[in-house]
Amino acid sequence: MSHKKAQKEKKEGRQPAVVTDEELAAAMERERGELEKTWARPTGWRGWFTDTDHKAIAMRYIKTAFVFFLLGGVEAALMRIQLMRPNNHFLNPDQYNQIFTVHGTTMMFLFAVPIMTAMGIYLVPLMVGARDVAFPRLNLYGYFVYLVGGLLLYSGFVLNTGPDAGWFAYVPLSGPGYSPGKRVDIWAQMITFTEISSLVGAIVIIGTAFKMRAPGMTLNRIPLFVWAQVVTAFMIIFAMPAVMLASSFLASDRLIDTHFFNPAEGGDAILYQHLFWFFGHPEVYIIFIPALGFISPIIITFARRKIFGYVPLVLSLISTAFIGFGLWVHHMFATPIPQMGQSLFTAASMMISIPSGVQIFCWIATLWGSKLNIKTPLLFVLGFFAIFVLGGLTGVMLASVPLDLQIHDTFFVVAHLHYVLIGGSVFPLFAAFYYWFPKWTGRMLSEWAGRWNFWLMFIGFNLVFFPMHQLGLNGMPRRVYTYLPETGWGTLNLVASIGAFILASGVLVFLVNVFWARRAGAVAGDNPWQADSLEWSIPSPPPNYNFHNIPVVQGRYPIWQATADAPVVRGLSTTKRETVVTSVMDAQPELRFEIPGPSIWPSLVALATAVTFIAGIFTPWAFLVGAILAGITLTGWFFCDPNYENKTARETGEHSHSVPRAPELRPKEV
Amino acid sequence: MSARSVIDVSELQHHQFDTYDPVWWGNNFLLAIETSMFAILIATYYYLRQNFHEWPPPVAQLTATLQPLPVITYGTAITILLVVSCSPMIVTDLSARWGYRRLSQVGLVICVICGLAAIVLRSFEFSAVYFRWDSNAYGSIVWFMLGMHMLHLLVLTTESVLLMIWIFTREYDMKHRVDIVTLAVYWYWVTGIWVLLYAIIYFTPRMK
Known about the structure:
The structure holds two protein chains of two kinds.
Chain A: H1 3-11, H2 21-38, H3 44-50, H4 54-82, H5 93-128, H6 136-158, H7 183-211, H8 224-255, H9 269-303, H10 310-324, H11 339-351, H12 353-367, H13 376-398, H14 401-407, H15 411-441, H16 447-473, H17 490-520, H18 558-561, E1 568-570, E2 578-582, E3 589-594, H19 601-615, H20 621-639
Antiparallel strand pairs in A: 2-3
Helix pairs in contact in A: 4-5, 4-6, 4-17, 5-6, 5-7, 5-8, 5-9, 6-7, 6-19, 7-8, 7-19, 8-9, 8-10, 9-10, 9-15, 10-12, 13-15, 13-16, 15-16, 16-17, 19-20
Chain B: E1 6-8, H1 22-49, E2 59-60, E3 65-66, H2 73-98, H3 101-125, H4 137-169, H5 174-203
Antiparallel strand pairs in B: 2-3
Helix pairs in contact in B: 1-4, 1-5, 2-3, 2-5, 3-4, 4-5
């Protein structure tokens, strides 16, 4: 390398393209210092509102969602205390209505969806070898909108204005005629906030997975976790608009007297159910598919071998997503649906068990005959198999119309949905916590406590929800605040309530484990599980810039397959926030993309959004004011000092008719 | 430490058009969200129509009943305006790709004027529906469809104004040229969606 060129590159803050043996170590150290400075994160209260680091935002998402999980759990415990014996008066009917509504709403909208998105926001950039997500500022905005939604719901709840029409808020019960007051409006606007944040999260994740992959990570080398996140994000894009419309129609029926759901003026109550479940059924898969994404890497790691059937697994994810849009009417078998429609949706509901089955068999085939390393994450995955298969079986039962009509709105359905949702996503989520906690914090969770955690949760869970199948068959309807002793439901309810406390103690063990491990857990090192994917190739916790040198991926299992002199990407700036943008299919390098840095504007736009929709509960004029506020803040976002931009290297006004060819992905030997 | 092979990316550009740029993808995903929103709105429109013998519902006058068809004038004017405005947008789009600053400026100014005109026409269009949003379900859904499209007209025009201000007062850099090309996609999309909505809102009631 000529001296002149080296000096020029140094001036522009680029990494020198060629190094000799002796210079390497020193140069690396210098670069590390520069990267630390370039990617430094704002701290303190400023950091709260301006920090765009994907790991920081994801951690906040995870903590917030977990707090909502605990709150939802407390509500569940209150319900179980109430139902423990017949004729109980621990809660009155109105409190019970609010509590079951807020419980369902919290678990679906404030816990399950956001925490799955958050796992993607943390891990997708690390797994694909990027230095941040594609749209970090948008990401920050998404978090704050979500937080506002959660705070809105709980502010209403503590002020005795919690929604009380069930987590799906069917009209006419939730309409202006039967639910006066502001309870349902709070629910409807909470939906708006959480859906905006999910949609934003989906765009961030797809953008990152499509364009920010390390060179060499072609489509058929993308980790299965990332595939799952991408498929989920696409489902969010097509499903969430339905619930946004359902809740907007509901809110406008209540606020400005539209008649979408008012039969007297040509509106239609069943329309609400269609709109809600067109979102609501894919929603189940939006929660479940990321969980499938946790399972594959955990199985790969603890079976210590390559996955069996990578392509079938990916195709199963995609077909589950497609079929997932054809199931919504099976929630509505008790409404006047044409028989042809019923048959179609029954068929689709049964068909979706095929891709789920394919996945389970692929995982079993991977585990079969391998030398299992049974650690807590794998234990939770095995627990998932047991519980989810049971939930899947009752799902096939419910897909049959005559049976569904008998047990519609009974505890059988409550049992089924908890088996699929807790089995299908909470167990894999805990597996994921145990698996990635060392990466997040640099410390290991206790294995001993992990086993206690698992068995308490597993036994507790089955004790709560298995008896509910029988209760449902015995005719106990869901959403009743109490029952008479003559019904004979007392014993099974008591068993379920005892189970609830065992389950809760399992969660408590987890919390203690986390707080203990933060201080005293064993130091993890970069790759404590000897896993295969890129996030384990960097320190734990990861540095702000994630990868010092962006790796070049050579196979589906980058760490296991990396050769001793695995090539890396050079030539990115160390003084600007640069990462490599690659092509969608083949991951050929295309751009040196500058990632936006910290900014206050996303938080301000979130504030404008919050003002608009919260005031919109009370007056339609809020939307006019909101539009102006949003206009002002978005203008600020657009014109704000692009502090990340390199002013000297800015390409100004040159006439470029042809697109320059990206360099071939053939590493040069130097 | 031994020397290792590298892929040198130091010659790559920071921004490039279309599929190269993450922003282009992000914009398209936003449009995918909005497309599914409009698709569900259209489904809702036809779903509600099943509840009516006549669509729009007749209005009883003193002696006779009236079939209150939506007045087509404003809708047609907006359709023509938006379709025609695609040509200055195509010019803006191409000039941004070629790097002709002056042409981009002129094109964007014409587009902004078209956008503002469409917004003005739209505010008259609401009254052409004959029903208010709170008259019946027909009025509700038609107002909602017009309103959601109005929202996009507002956002589109605002975005065009911001970009226009930028390229008049600041640098005509690659980043904002990519933004213009991305804005053009949004413009074509708003036009295309409107042609569909126009056909549905005005011709469904006229088909017997």
